[in-house]
Amino acid sequence: MAAPPLPPETAAPPRDPAPPGPAPAPPRRVPRRAPWRARLNPYLLLVPALVPIAVGLGYPLVRQFLLSFQEYGLAQQFGRPAEWVGLRNYTELLSDPYVWGVIGRSVAFCLVNAGLTMAVGVGLAVLMSKVGRAARITLQVGMLLAWGTPVLATLTVWQWLFDSQYGVVNWVLAGPLGLAEFRGHSWIIEPASFYLVATVIVVWMSVPFVVFTTYAALLQVPAECVEAAQLDGAGAWQRFRHLSVPLIKPVLLIAALLQVIWDLRVFTQIHVLQKAGAPTRETHLLGTYVYSLSREFSMAGAMATVMLVLTLCLTGFYIRRMLREEEL
Predict the structure, then answer these.
(1) Residue 60 belongs to some domain of the structure
(2) Where is the composition biased (Pro residues) (predicted)?
């Protein structure tokens, strides 16, 4: 016999259809790694550029580093074997108070000149972006002439400007300004005025690079952002400080890094002024001091290595900042 049907109240209620779930994701394809030859191709393309750099820079650096641990002078130039002396050259240099004075003067000269160059260069770049076309072209031509003039020609002009007998600077100070003590004043005899003249020359020759670099970066600041900040009531200084500077900060860091390197190893300007009659011992910087040790190759190599380490220490901050900017 068939079982009796269940009463209506005890019958199981019909189930609601299950809601449609998300479609299953397609199987993820694992990318295949390129063969090692394909991964090596980009590095092979760098070889033509790396080989000249390694030969032109790497060999002199290695040679300089090895010479700094040897006794190498004029006798070794004529065939006498070089004697390995270890850290003796470094010990003699770093135990000499005069060397520390040269290092201190070089660092102070570098920081002052780099700071002045950046301040004047950024100011002229902002001015160039605000003036009319005729004034802008005049500034650009003037700075190109200052930048493109050979160093020795520029130094000759500045020596005549600061000449004790016929210089325009002494004539202006003693004549129209009435400062009689500057009549016949020699600017390169005293170390303080010597570094003042050197600072003027170095900044004059370095400013055009900062101006053109900063001006090119300022042209990339979006005009819409500047107009929005102006509509919000931001003044010219506020727009420059809070809008333009953050956008061009990578360019400013690179320019400042190059200025620190160039001003720390400045040589030609100091050497020419010394030859014009300045006391060399009181006006030596790292570049000219290394040159004065040219007959003692091992000592010169040790001093040049110290100079290289000092340059890396001073530029380490900027390098870390640039690497951090790239990671963001």
Answers:
(1) no
(2) 1-28
